[in-house]
């Protein structure tokens, strides 16, 4: 979204935010999170589930495997890491 005026230019950046389950927490300050979503086929209207794994920056190493976490888009930390963890929503049992 961009709004322009005569003298100044304002830019609003929208950062994406997801919630998923931690599948790996073996690295230092990095967790791998699986996000599941339900999509609908455009022609047949059948719903199917898909999942994607994200590499997420965890500064305090507080997330463990099985936890549900919320994470947000940010600047690139490395080749694959462009997300940072904002909160642990639910701890694993």
TrEMBL record:
Residues 42-61 are annotated as: Disordered. The gene is rpsQ. GO terms for cellular component: cytosolic small ribosomal subunit. Belongs to the universal ribosomal protein uS17 family. Keywords: Ribonucleoprotein, Ribosomal protein, RNA-binding, rRNA-binding. Part of the 30S ribosomal subunit. This is Small ribosomal subunit protein uS17. Pfam families: Ribosomal_S17 (PF00366).
């Amino acid at each position: 979204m961009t709004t322009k005026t005569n003298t100044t230019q304002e830019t609003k950046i929208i950062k994406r935010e997801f919630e998923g389950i931690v599948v790996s927490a073996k690295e230092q300050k990095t967790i791998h999170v699986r996000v599941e979503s339900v999509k609908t086929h455009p022609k047949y209207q059948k719903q199917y589930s898909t999942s994607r794994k994200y590499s997420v920056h965890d500064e305090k190493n507080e997330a463990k495997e099985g936890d549900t976490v919320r994470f947000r888009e940010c600047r690139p930390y490395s080749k694959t890491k462009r997300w940072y963890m904002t909160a642990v929503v639910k701890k694993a049992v």
